[in-house]
């Protein structure tokens, strides 16, 4: 990952990288490492972590003047709204665990959102030492491995050695990686192991934000080395990815196991729910291990199809 924060100046202002987001406020970093708290020019902040922005100084802070074109953008949603939260990523690391049991629907949402942005995903399955729980979780992920998703077995120990992480570290090198995971999956242990300086970096950001007066949920970028070529972006919780920007008719094309059989449908505009001659429905009857579609994945598709077909409540 290039720092993409040249610190240059022209009529449009200085160029910097957004490294933290706090509601209407963002922290930007220049090429020399200097960080400045910035605010949007208008009422709404559109800048997210990973953005390259043009900004102008105002007293001891700054204003965001322009967001540079993005390579990709991810959204999250809650009961009230959909909001973007990370941009210009190279990959996404989804950390799951043998215990507590992960939500397959949340996993599917994340994979669909990343597929829509052409973002590679790496799934880490933590707590490999908890057998047979790990074996059950590994079996649940079989449909995902069959459709090409890579799953790394991990055993992350808080404050201890983590030999499993050598391969993971190599995969993070020179990339901007968003790391996500549900509560209890070991994301905090992973971040603290990869980033012993994370606590100090968070304290530094808090000082820049006037001792934590901004309390909105935080998304932060941490550099993995002094050269600032590899970045880990930490966003609290396992995001409920917003998918309303995806047309219902395109949903199956973003689920590789369904897409593989959609080409066998009799009708080109098949919704894969009830039409005769549907290749997706036929694949549900294929024997286990025959590259069919698992019933759980198909149920997720039906639920998401109904969801994205409804007008959003925002």
Describe this structure as you would to a colleague.
By secondary structure, this protein is of the alpha/beta class. It folds into three domains: 9-67, OB fold (Dihydrolipoamide Acetyltransferase, E2P); 73-234, Rossmann fold; 248-309, Ribonucleotide Reductase Protein R1, domain 1, CATH 1.10.40. The protein contains nine helices and 14 strands. It has helices at 104-116, 133-140, 142-146, 165-172, 187-194, 198-208, 256-262, 279-283, 295-309, and strands spanning 9-10, 13-22, 25-29, 35-40, 52-58, 61-67, 73-77, 82-87, 91-97, 121-126, 150-153, 176-180, 218-223, 231-234. It has a five-stranded mixed beta barrel. α1 (104-116) links the parallel β9 (91-97) and β10 (121-126).
């Amino acid at each position: 990952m290039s720092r993409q924060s040249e610190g240059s100046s022209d009529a449009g202002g200085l160029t910097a990288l957004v490294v933290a987001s706090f509601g209407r406020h963002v922290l930007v970093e220049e090429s020399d490492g200097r960080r400045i708290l910035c605010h949007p020019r208008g009422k709404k902040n559109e800048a997210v972590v990973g953005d390259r922005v043009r900004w102008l100084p105002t007293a001891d802070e700054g204003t965001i003047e322009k967001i540079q074109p993005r390579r990709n953008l991810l959204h999250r949603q809650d009961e009230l709204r959909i909001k973007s939260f990370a941009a210009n990523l190279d990959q996404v690391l989804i950390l799951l665990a043998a215990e507590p049991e992960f939500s397959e629907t949340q996993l599917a949402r994340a994979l669909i959102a990343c597929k829509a942005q052409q973002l590679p995903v790496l799934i880490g399955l933590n707590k490999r030492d908890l057998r047979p729980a790990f074996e059950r979780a590994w079996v649940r992920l079989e449909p995902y491995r069959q459709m090409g998703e890579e799953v790394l077995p991990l055993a992350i120990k808080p404050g201890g050695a983590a030999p499993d992480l050598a391969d993971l570290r190599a995969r993070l090198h020179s990339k901007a990686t968003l790391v996500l995971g549900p509560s209890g999956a070991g994301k905090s242990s992973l971040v603290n192991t990869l980033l012993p300086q994370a606590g100090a970096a968070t304290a530094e950001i808090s000082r820049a934000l006037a001792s934590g007066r901004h309390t909105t949920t935080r998304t932060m970028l941490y550099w993995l080395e002094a050269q600032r070529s590899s970045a880990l972006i930490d966003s609290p919780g396992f995001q409920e990815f917003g998918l309303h920007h995806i047309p219902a008719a395109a949903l199956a094309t973003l689920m590789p196991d369904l897409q593989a059989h959609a080409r066998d449908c009799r009708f080109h505009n098949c919704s894969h729910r009830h039409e005769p001659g549907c290749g997706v429905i036929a694949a549900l009857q294929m024997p286990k291990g025959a590259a069919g579609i698992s019933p759980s994945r198909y149920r997720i598709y039906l639920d998401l199809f109904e969801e994205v077909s409804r007008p959003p409540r925002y």
